[in-house]
């Protein structure tokens, strides 16, 4: 295992070694890069994947036996092989404590955290001393990945909590726990005052959701409808059949993103066409 992990060429060798700096200050360069002097551009290039696979196959065994077998193949007295032991804690949580019936990990930085928050896929169980798989971290990692993917789909679909966009002029809003169908209309143009010359007044229109004139709630309309050039001309509470069709539910509970909403919306937007007939239809006898 030692040869598989360590014996691989180091990267960062394609550079010219800087020479000795001139003694005279006038002969030195006027400009110098941001990289500090004397720092090597080479770095280690270990292949730690075989070590990780070997540790995963040892799950269920006593950690003392696993560690002894590892030390037989990777000698800690060798400087290069000692570096492999330093990466061992990247895969195995060794300092595991039981606090209040829960397993926690004592890290070098960050203090004590729950086992599910550890980045290690394996841990040493303090109750029996065996090497175990960190199933809690795996489940938590899958949950966070699914939540991130769902949030990305929600951003792409333009989803907002409590709002469903049916088309350009129709939206569904949840107001005080009740879903309404909102019909949007363009804001009427501004008009000139008949009493005072040179005075421009906003168009006469009343927003049915904000209960205010369109000239008094421009910023609120932009936040609510996503545009500032429209207002709610009419609103109507959704019936039971419409709630089922749109997969909605009245109430103040959470409103999670449903990927099936976009699929159902695309299906409803398609126009159904009947069969096409060309020429006269003849009945066969």
UniProtKB/TrEMBL annotation:
Stretch list, region Disordered: 11-34, 256-285
Biased composition (Basic and acidic residues): 21-34
Domain of life, source organism: Bacteria
Biased composition (Basic residues): 263-273
Protein name, as recorded: Uncharacterized protein
Provenance organism: Lysobacter enzymogenes
Lineage, opening ranks: Bacteria, Pseudomonadati, Pseudomonadota, Gammaproteobacteria, Lysobacterales
